[in-house]
Amino acid sequence: MALSSDILALSTSFPSKQKRALMEFTNTWGDGKVFDLYRTLDRSATTVSRLEIRIEGSAPPHRFVLAYLTNGPTYRFDRRPETSKPGTLALETFAGLSNRKAADDYSILNLEDVEALKGTTHCELDLSAPPNTDLLHVFSACFSLSQDKKAREYALLKYNCYFFSWTLVMIVARHTLPFVVPSSDEVIERATPNLHSLTDSLTDKIVDILLNLVLNTISEFRVRLGRSIIGGLRKRGIIGWSLPVGAVRFVLRRALKYQLDSGLRSKLKQKTQEQLVSSLKPMLEELLGQRDTAQTIIKVDKRLWIDELVDDFRPLVGQQLTRVLWDVILNIISPPANVTSTEINEQTQTSTERPEFSVRIKQGLIGDFQFVKMWNDALSAALPAAREAARGKADPSKFQDSQQLHSEMFNTAFKAASGAALEAAQKVAEDTKEEMNNPKRDDMWKKFWKVWDIVWDSSRSKAEATVVQVVAKSLVEVVGNNNKQHFMALISEHRSQVPEARRLSIADFQNNILKSVRTAYIQTSEPYVASIQAAMGRAWDISKTTYRPFGPQQQSE
């Protein structure tokens, strides 16, 4: 940004000194000449019909705000340095000298003044203000900037005319378009398409969870037992058992995934979609009817940026989702109650193409048919057992915090799954004992039973993080795109661009402001942009807290 841009703007676009009035505020809302001026105005002359951000034509440009009153003149609001000496600005900007307080001012323009401005400036943003927009809202934005220790100073590369103009319009828009608590139907309408798009990725995650469950168990057995069970293996099994664990996992993952993709994945995908959609509506109906939710809406109404609401809604959504999450995930990965273990084995061992291929790989890497059947039956028994043990027990009110809840739920599900899987595996070993006819094999299984363990907590953590984000984001989208929060705007980013009339939501409007922030400053790193957003947010918090309407003709004490 050229150092001369704001200085040049002073001589070309600012009103004369006779028309400019410095906005000086005390620390008390309602005190000072600015508020005294407002009190002299008729009530009918304080309504704002339009707000404009206009750009003076130098490069880079100078921005200022015009507030058009319905039955009155037009007010112009500018930020400029207290003195416009280039050397002083350079030292403040690059030599680390402390900044001076900004000389924010306003001027009252007649029709001729406005027409003259239109010939020398470019309108970047033209907002049709909501009917309840008042000049006092604009003064409130100016007052709030004067109360922030950082934002009230003039900084050429940060708290400049750009920042001033955007903050004024943002604060006025938030005053006149408050956040609205959405209904469950509104959230579902927005969340369902996202859930549809989520199904594929969530199905992939669950497939990975199931694969890792088997692979981690096999790997753990190999690490713990080593060569101590070699005597109970056949020759082919000894070769597979002797390979590096990483190599076995690599090949076995592909063999198992080949089976899952061939038949189970499509059923798993359908089940995932059904579980997510069916659980969403009752969850949201209870969530949005809670007293805590209303209190959260009051709290987040202090937020300026719509995207920040995710941080406020996520705990609420997470707590409510916890009630149904374990049932949802365990229902997804568990077979239907009327499907027998034999049918599951047939599904997991049969594919539509080359049915023997993956089975041969598994038998080579895991062991013979006894091993394969043991893993199938153990997994088939573990998941339904975990589902039944954990069903309906995830009640946040019964636990001190979410960590304790999830720990208890995991222990409950883990214990049930582990016990059922062990029982199923032992049954396979016993049922096939005569067919194997190998005493060393019996000793081998005893070693397995001593180190029995499974790992599958990832199913809970991965699914929870994904689903919470989708629902929380949908809540935010509804708050920011409510039909009652739209207004008409003309947006023209460049002088050569034909203005385009748009119906904007508060979320759309904020996204346009954020786009301008990212393109107007030299530093566009996210931390720098975030600091600009944070400063605007602080100003809004002050404005929201201090703003109190008062009638015209009422003099300050």
The chain-level structural class is: alpha+beta
Note the beta-strand portion: 5-15%
Radius of gyration: 33 Å
Tell how many strands the DSSP assignment holds. 8
User: Helix and strand string, N-terminal first?
Assistant: HEHEEEHEHEHHHHHHHHHHHHHHEEHH
Main beta-sheet strand count, sense and barrel state: 8 strands, antiparallel
Task: Enumerate how many helices there are, as a single number.
Answer: 20
On the 0 to 100 scale, the average pLDDT is 69
Protein architecture, described:
Helices cover 61% and strands 9% of the residues. Strand 3 (62-69) and strand 4 form a beta hairpin. The protein is built from 20 helices and eight strands. Helix 5 (135-147) packs across helix 6 and helix 7 (184-225) packs antiparallel against helix 9. The protein has 557 residues and is α+β, with helices and mostly antiparallel strands. The chain starts with a helix and ends in an 11-residue tail after the last helix. The chain has two domains: 4-179 and 484-546, no CATH class; 184-478, no CATH class. Mean pLDDT is 69; it is low at 1-11, 335-367 and 453-460.
